[in-house]
From TrEMBL:
<feature type="domain" description="FAD-binding FR-type">
    <location>
        <begin position="1"/>
        <end position="97"/>
    </location>
</feature>
<dbReference type="InterPro" id="IPR017927">
    <property type="entry name" value="FAD-bd_FR_type"/>
</dbReference>
<keyword id="KW-0001">2Fe-2S</keyword>
<dbReference type="InterPro" id="IPR001041">
    <property type="entry name" value="2Fe-2S_ferredoxin-type"/>
</dbReference>
<keyword id="KW-0285">Flavoprotein</keyword>
<dbReference type="InterPro" id="IPR006058">
    <property type="entry name" value="2Fe2S_fd_BS"/>
</dbReference>
<dbReference type="InterPro" id="IPR017938">
    <property type="entry name" value="Riboflavin_synthase-like_b-brl"/>
</dbReference>
<keyword id="KW-0479">Metal-binding</keyword>
<protein>
    <submittedName>
        <fullName>2Fe-2S iron-sulfur cluster binding domain-containing protein</fullName>
    </submittedName>
</protein>
<dbReference type="InterPro" id="IPR036010">
    <property type="entry name" value="2Fe-2S_ferredoxin-like_sf"/>
</dbReference>
<dbReference type="InterPro" id="IPR012675">
    <property type="entry name" value="Beta-grasp_dom_sf"/>
</dbReference>
<feature type="domain" description="2Fe-2S ferredoxin-type">
    <location>
        <begin position="221"/>
        <end position="308"/>
    </location>
</feature>
<keyword id="KW-0408">Iron</keyword>
<keyword id="KW-0560">Oxidoreductase</keyword>
<dbReference type="InterPro" id="IPR039261">
    <property type="entry name" value="FNR_nucleotide-bd"/>
</dbReference>
<dbReference type="InterPro" id="IPR050415">
    <property type="entry name" value="MRET"/>
</dbReference>
<dbReference type="Pfam" id="PF00111">
    <property type="entry name" value="Fer2"/>
</dbReference>
């Protein structure tokens, strides 16, 4: 992919537009999707797509300049217009479903996956409210674009003006039929998760592992994994991930973050009860138990049968 556009849209955020160098159409990307950027030093970093999902000619990402960050150091320090980059096809762990009304909660650069969702909501004529938490209005990416969109409004919470979001009040006043999509700093997402009622539909995009409640049961036990396609059975000892145990047995599974946040190693579960420890699946998806992330999740049953 070639860098077709490289703009500074706030003092600390660069917008990168990528296109196929031969002008070929790109794989579709639904709102909430992200791509992995393969950095020249071999590291891989995930970025949410923030462009128009209907645009099959370009992918857009917005990258915050994070001190010491490898991806942001590359994008802000080395990347040039016309450079060629390797990316993975879009992957979506942050699914956007149809509804009549939406609540969006963004913190800073966490607006990126929400922007295509808000555009989709606008196109469908749905009502929406965005609570946008930023350090200052000048540091809020896409603020003018968002304010220009119909059917909804932006409540800006600028820390430099003392406008903090009252998360508890917001969650308490949000009806259960309004899905809530949230992305931003860990502290904001933890506050939203803590204030959510059990009957509310709240979805997050975690780019660092989601904090798990303390576990009293199902510590790192040993269990068997049956690989349905090859028919082999692999014992996963305590302290070893399913991914590593399968790799040692010659079964290679695609992986990227190995922290349970990117979704690359998501695998279909045919039998058995997973012990989910990832930050990708929603509570409903966890309860359904149809897939699991092999890099971090384990088993509650003594045996899992996986579609590998
Ligand atoms: Fe990223 Fe497993 S490798 S979720």
């Amino acid at each position: 992919m070639r860098v077709h556009r490289l703009d500074r849209i706030t003092p600390q955020v660069r917008l990168v537009e990528l296109r196929d160098p031969d002008g070929r159409g790109l794989p579709p990307a639904e709102p909430g999707a992200h791509i992995d950027l393969h950095l020249p030093d071999g590291a891989v970093r995930s970025y949410s797509l923030c462009g128009d999902p209907a645009d099959r000619q370009a992918y857009r990402i917005a990258v915050l300049n994070v001190p010491g960050g490898r991806g942001s150091g590359f994008v802000h320090g080395e990347l040039a217009l016309g450079a060629d980059l390797t990316i993975s096809p879009p992957r979506n762990n942050f699914h956007f479903d149809d509804a009549a009304r939406y609540l969006f909660v963004a913190g800073g650069i966490g607006i990126t996956p929400l922007l295509p969702m808000i555009r989709r909501a606008v196109n469908k004529g749905a009502d929406w409210v965005l609570h946008y938490c930023v350090r200052s209005a000048a540091a809020a990416p896409f603020l003018d674009d968002l304010r220009a969109l119909p059917h909804g409004h932006v409540d800006l919470h600028a820390a430099d003006e003392g406008q903090r979001l009252a998360v508890d009040e917001l969650m308490a006043s949000t009806p259960v039929d309004v899905p809530i999509y949230c992305c931003g700093p860990q502290r904001l997402m933890e506050a939203v998760a803590a204030a959510a009622r059990p009957d509310q539909d709240v979805r997050f995009e975690w780019f660092t592992p989601r904090p798990e409640p303390a576990r009293q049961d199902f510590a790192d036990n040993s269990f068997d994994v049956v690989c349905a396609r090859s028919g082999i059975t692999v014992t996963v000892p305590a302290g070893t991930s399913i991914l590593d145990a399968l790799y040692a047995a010659g079964v290679e599974i695609d992986s990227s973050c190995e922290q349970g946040v990117c979704g690359t190693c998501e695998t279909t579960v045919l039998e058995g009860e997973p012990d989910h420890r990832d930050s990708v699946l929603s509570d409903a998806e966890r309860a359904a138990g149809k897939t699991m992330m092999l890099c971090v999740s384990r088993a509650r049953s003594t045996r899992l049968v996986l579609d590998v």
